[in-house]
Structure formats: C-alpha cells, structure tokens
Write a structure and sequence with these properties.
single chain, two-stranded antiparallel ribbon, about 80 residues, alpha+beta, 2 helices, three-stranded antiparallel beta sheet
C-alpha cells in the first residue's frame, strides 16, 4: 500500500475515529489484537529470512551484525 492509497482510504473514514493496527498475537487461538497507533514515522526495513517478512532496521544494532548489501527500503511505519 502506498501513502496515497492510505490517504484515499482514510478520507472515507470519520475524522474523529481513533487509529489502531491489528496483528496476530501468536497465541493458540490466533487472537487478532489491535493496539492504538501512537507514532507515524519514516524508517528503513529489510527482509528477514528468520521472520519471513520485513523487519525494522535498528541502526545501532544492525550496522554491526548485518551486511550492508541487503535490500533496504524507506517506508512509513505506524506503531
């Protein structure tokens, strides 16, 4: 999804509605939880074979432990 797609979808929503994001909690029942979005920021992600999805690059840690030749992307992160 692009930022322009998100803006278009959000314009159809009530402007005073809270924003949450959902994910599978990982429990036995595969419960979907939905905490509030507290932050929106630009960040870098790269694919993680271990997680089988993009992970947020934490510069202080990842610079020392990951190679710099892996594909990285600038993205908008909701957290």
């Amino acid at each position: 999804m692009l930022v322009s797609d998100l803006i278009e979808l959000l314009q159809e929503m009530p402007q005073d509605a809270e924003v949450h994001f959902s994910y599978n909690y990982g429990d036995h029942w595969r419960t979907q939880v939905a905490p509030k979005v507290d932050e929106v920021y630009m960040g870098e992600v790269k694919y993680s074979d271990y997680h089988r999805m993009p992970k947020v690059i934490e510069r202080d840690y990842d610079d020392e432990h990951d190679s710099t030749d892996e594909q990285q992307s600038q993205v908008v992160i909701l957290s």
